[in-house]
Protein 1
Amino acid sequence: MNMADKVILVTGGSRGIGAATALLAGQRGYAVAVNYVTNRAAADAVVAQIQAAGGRAIAVGGDVAREEDVLQLFATVDGELGRVTALVNNAGVLDHQSRLEDMSAERINRVLIANVTGSLLCAREAVKRMSTRHGGQGGAIVNLSSMAAKLGGPGEYVDYAASKGAIDAFTIGLAKEVAAEGIRVNAVRPGLIYTDIHASGGEAGRVDRLKDAVPMKRGGSAAEVANAILWLLSEEASYATGTFIDVSGGR
Ligand code: NAP
């Protein structure tokens, strides 16, 4: 496949790991759709950086938790960049650190719908466009799981950890479902990465508090996660599907 034909959608591409992934994808020759939910200025800044480096990119708003937004998001990408050949299911949320006893049903549902339903809906739309079964030319999907899927997030966010466990199961299942249709589906499990997500959990300094427990004794950067994502999307990973890369400093 010619690189000029490569179109990537990065959900939640406006900040953190998604922004680093969008920037790297732009450098690698993808036309990049940078999705955001509220922070248009951040998405525009990522797009401007890609364009300044000679790449092609658009910012597209939309809440992955809402089916109508997901349909509109893919329709916009179809019209402006062409059919997606790569999807990074990166958009994800967590809420304040809390024990399960103190979590409301509203909070649990919000986290599960954004992280799980949102990723499933985006993957569904990508498969419709990539699968040889539907006249597509194949493609690759990378889901953002988390080391929380293995560690469980006790005392902080077991709801979030459960959502990432679901991402792991969905990665394995969808990979097998579409393997013969030209689509590879893999996931990355980041560990403690310096992004804004920890502030949304109520502790902006969380990575620094916990980094000594990481075998490498440091937090990771969004760019280090993006490198693994772009490798899984690339032809270098052509025989890898239904698999995981832990980017966690050994944690
Ligand atoms: P972040 O810095 O908080 O950025 C979140 C991004 O997702 C933003 O671009 C945000 O858009 C977007 N977003 C949030 N909800 C959305 C929705 N409903 N629809 C569309 N976009 C939405 O997060 P991050 O740390 O980069 O995390 C990215 C992914 O990696 C997540 O899936 C997270 O669970 C996973 N992860 C992160 C870490 C870590 O330590 N950072 C560790 C393990 C896994 P706006 O800018 O518009 O708000």
Protein 2
Amino acid sequence: MIEIKNVSFSYKGFEEEDNEEVLKNIDLTINDNEHTCILGHNGSGKSTLAKLLVGLDFCDKGTILIDNIEINEENVYQIREKIGIVFQNPDNQFIGATVQDDIAFGLENKCVPSEDMQGIIEEYAGKVGMQEFLDKEPTRLSGGQKQRVAIAGILATNPKIMIFDEATSMLDPIGIMEVNNSIEELRKENKTIISITHDVDYALKTDRLIVLDEGAVLFDGKPRDVFKHQDRLVEIGLDIPFALKISNALQNEGLTIKNCLSMKELEEELCQ
Ligand code: ADP
């Protein structure tokens, strides 16, 4: 379980006005096995929150607890055994010369005995469908394949919590599908997943949607309930699901239909 208690944070600049709070009194509890989506305009503080969760920065006010352990500079390596992150740019996450070396790196850090390593590497490369690529150089892979290797590298170290910080935003539609399928598989393994994304249709498939606006939590609830506030979401520059846009357009043309969030719902509504 992740407990974020009254957390505030500002980046330290040279001038006083640079020290503006980018996270303001964030209070959230994220439960085990929950798939949470964090949505928000650029600059709303999503990545900063993710960085605090993995101990790349530390809060100025408040506390963050992972499994009842408060994150601080002393225990950050212990925390990182529980929580892994996949970033936006797949090119910045490789250390190894081959896919195999790259997955091995995390295992070496965890002091996994060398005789166990090969089996673990093959298992996790297999989980993301990359077992055929173990001898390949990461630079020669497609964006989606790179992100899948990054996921395998983190999974091999077996963290309970995984954060995907816009992990599909630089990928083509096939890459997005590949990575989303890998995330879907993780859900079957009782992982706690936090997805930071701009993709509102993806957000609909998660258990919980948190909307950040200017460093504060604006909405927190089931995605269906959050999208009831569609006017406010549009006001702060966010997108709404495609089916909801069509529902709105048809209502504006005088058709009496309910607000639909998925194309399947819209189809059923129109058939009726
Ligand atoms: P998001 O992920 O929602 O786009 P960020 O967490 O990246 O938002 O940014 C929140 C705010 O913090 C923005 O105003 C951004 O300019 C600022 N910021 C982000 N990273 C840094 C940094 N390393 N130094 C100074 N300011 C930063």
Protein 3
Amino acid sequence: MNVGVIGAGYVGLTISAVFAKWGHDVYCVEKEDEKVEDLKAGRIPIYEPGLEEWIKESLEKGKLVFTTDLAEAVKACHLLFIAVGTPEGPNGEPNLDFIEQIINELVPLITQPKIIVTKSTVPIGTNEWIKNKLIHAGVRSQFITVVSNPEFLREGTAIHDMCQPDKIIIGTDQVEAVEQLKELYQEINAPYLITSLAGAEMIKYTANSFLAMKISFINEIARICDAYQVDVTEVAKGIGMDPRIGSSFLQAGLGYGGSCFPKDVKALEYAAKQKEITPHLLQATQLINEEQLSLYCQKLRKSLTNFPDVSIAVWGATFKPNTDDIRNSQAVKLINLLTRKGCRVHVYDPVASISIQEVTVHSSIYESIKGRDGLVIATEWEMFHTVDWTLISKWMKGKVVLDCRNVIDPLLLKEHGFEYVGVGRP
Ligand code: UGA
């Protein structure tokens, strides 16, 4: 099938790469010339395991074309995916400017029947609005089918999540659109749920908000565990064995970040308030997440007597491991908080390139800890499991390790003479 993908961000690039790998002919449209030139040369602007190889392979086979020419993609493809960003607006409402711009550009180009599939996370009612906007602008209604097909891929495991999803949600009342998408996704073995347009939009927000709520819930439990000297990892394991609860997203830590959870919980809160509903759980979810930063700052203050006149190493800056994304990263927020308080902060991250005023960034993990009073682990990169604690103990000045992601075995650190402070871990 010929497939058009509008937007070469995280979702757009991943779905383009996967569709092309499945043998479809993909036209990925991006408005930035420079980005398109890079992509054509196989240079991928994001760090996502496996993505570059898949894109290069499809470019070589001629199955994937990057272009700035929307008209070319519209002409060639019956299926058009919209995968542009919907960033947070000033009051928590999603900003739909990019979507609106695309719709305006599509108006003169749709002269034959097209299926417009929204992958972007959009507020309830947006797909209906897209359909009406196109019709009011003069596109013949029989030429337009609008479908909401939300994406549930995670950064760091995007290809795997797209190829092996646990469900495919298709919001539409058009049977032909369902059949077309089923043909497109024939490599996938997952159940389909066909819903209304608004139902599919709501499922996406609800899923992300529920997962964020699970994280804030376990972080609240971790605070209680701390007070009662109980290990929260045992508690998470125990409750996770109940299939009604499930074991995932129960890792207590510094809180959630990234380009999705913070934005989507806020957007759902905004949507609720628009209808005069007070979304208590959504509000508590965000409050707990924000409080995690000051809480872990206080833990550090308690362990380091000279705080804030201290030199601290922070390992990890990305919002989670296996990505270079620092958008809304709790690690970066903690780094900023410690710096504002007057601490001298030294950062090491295996992938992210960061530049924060008054923060020293190291390219060597061992250099980052030399002479430091304390070490904070802010993101759970795999490599932190296998560092040489004998060396670290020799080179660090102080002996405090604040493990904000419960990465390290407390006993191992104790053996090396460290004071271990974890998340809900005695
Ligand atoms: C999230 C969702 O998981 C995807 O299903 C969704 O498609 C995506 O948003 C999106 O809307 O585009 P992502 O933001 O890539 O994916 O990251 P997650 O793996 O969900 O992690 C989000 C945050 O929660 C990270 O900061 C992570 O460190 C934190 N987290 C996750 C925890 O603190 N504890 C956990 O147990 C799990």
